Amino acid sequence: MSADTSRPGRDHPGEQAAADPIRLIAVRDTALSVDEVFAAVGDAAAGGTALFVGTVRSHDGGADVDGLGYSAHPSAEAEIRRIAEKVVAEYPVRALAAVHRVGELAIGDLAVVVAVSCPHRGEAFEACRMLIDDLKHQVPIWKHQTFSDGAEEWVGV
């Protein structure tokens, strides 16, 4: 999506992407913070900020999940940055942040937090959706689930 130049004021610098909007990209083995990600995308020219938080749920495919672990390829952080750069090229992003957790996680733990701020809410929603969807489909991060019945499953491998 390109900026809508048909509306008056769309040529204002605040309506455009920031010069360096990628503020935080990380793959971590420590707890994630929604506050940290939200603070990273703060921008006075942003009229909309969209934030997505992915948590470990207690079930998958009709089975109870006891916990899971995430593993990442060493290139995972660079791949997140590549996706972030695609989002920035597509939308007028003022600021963007994405962090993903690796290691053993419990039910309710934060697995991924992404946020995008843009001049308007629609752009922020669309950019955030592209960011999380592409991250989940393209970044080499794999999930190993342990089910209550003792079964195990690798997802994304």
Describe the structure.
This protein has 157 residues and is α+β, with helices and mostly antiparallel strands. The protein is 25% helix and 37% strand. It contains 3 helices and 9 strands, in the order βαβββαβββαββ. The protein has helices spanning 34-40, 76-90, 121-138, and strands at residues 22-28, 48-55, 59-60, 63-72, 95-101, 103-106, 110-118, 141-147, 152-155. A hairpin with a 2-residue loop joins strand 3 (59-60) and strand 4 (63-72). Helix 2 packs antiparallel against helix 3.
- Low-confidence spans: pLDDT under 50, at least 5 residues? 1-5
What is the beta-strand fraction?
A: 35-45%
- What fraction, in percent, of the residue positions are helical? 25-40%
Distance, first to last CA: 31 Å
Biggest β-sheet strands, sense, barrel: 5 strands, antiparallel
Structural class: alpha+beta
What Rg do the Cα atoms give? 17 Å
Mean pLDDT across residues: 92
Give me the count of strands: 9
Please, how many helices?
A: 3
List SSEs in N-to-C order: EHEEEHEEEHEE
Sum up the overall morphology in one term: elongated
What attributes characterize this protein structure?
5-stranded antiparallel sheet, alpha+beta, 3 helices, elongated, 157 residues, 25% helix, 4-stranded mixed sheet
Q: What's this model, at a glance?
A:
The protein is of the alpha+beta class and 157 residues long.
List the helices and strands and how they pair.
Elements: E1 22-28, H1 34-40, E2 48-55, E3 59-60, E4 63-72, H2 76-90, E5 95-101, E6 103-106, E7 110-118, H3 121-138, E8 141-147, E9 152-155
Parallel strand pairs: 1-5
Antiparallel strand pairs: 2-7, 3-4, 4-6, 4-8, 5-7, 8-9
